[in-house]
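job 3f2a | input accepted
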Amino acid sequence: MAITSANATQQFVPVKEIRNGVIILKDGSYRGVLICSSVNFGLKSADEQHAITLGFQNFLNTLDFSIQITINSRRMDLRPYLAFLAEKEPDQKSELMRIQLREYIEFIRSFTDQLNIMTKSFYVIVPYAPHFSAASSIGFLKHDAGATHIAESSFEEDRAQLEQRLSLVGGGLESIGVRAVPLGTEEVIELLYRSFNPGELENPIRLDN
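job 3f2a | predicted structure (209 res):
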C-alpha cells in the first residue's frame, strides 16, 4: 500500500497534540514555549554588559533541567505598511505633503528591494517529562509511535509542573531585563506550522535538540 505524502511527513513530526498552550510529544513528554524580548547588548556600557552576562550565567546555574534558546528569523513584509501610506495620500492637506509622502513610499520600496529586512523572534523552550528518567528528558523532540493517551487529571498535574518551570525561567530572564511570556495554543500552532514549513522562513526554529 502506498504511503501518501502527508502520512509520510507526519511520521517525522514528533508532536502528538497541543493542549492549553502545551506541546505534547509522541513520547508523552511536554514542552512549553516562552517568547522573549531582546536586550540591545551592544548599546550597553561595559559595566552593564558585565552585569547582564553575570546575571545570565547565574540564571543558567539555577536550572536543574535543560532549556533550548532559539531565534526565529524571517523577512519582513512591508507591503501592508506601504498600502496604508498610499491610502493616506489623498488626506494630505497640501501638494507638498503628498509629494513627500510619495517620495517616502518610493524610498521604502526601493530600500526593501535592495536589502532583506529581517524580523527576529526569540524563544525559550522548556521541557518536562513526568514519567521519564533524566537522561530521556534531555532530547527536546523524540518520536515514539507507542505513546498512550494522557488522562486529563494527569495532564493538569503535569502542566502545573511545567508552568512552575516556565515561571522559574521567566523570572530568571526578567532579572536580566528580558521579558518572557508563555505562548498560547494558537500561537504555538502558528509557530510549529512555520517551523515545519521552512520554505516560509529564512531560519526555521529547531525543536529537536
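job 3f2a | Helices lie at 5-10, 46-62, 79-88, 95-114, 152-174, 185-195.
job 3f2a | closed
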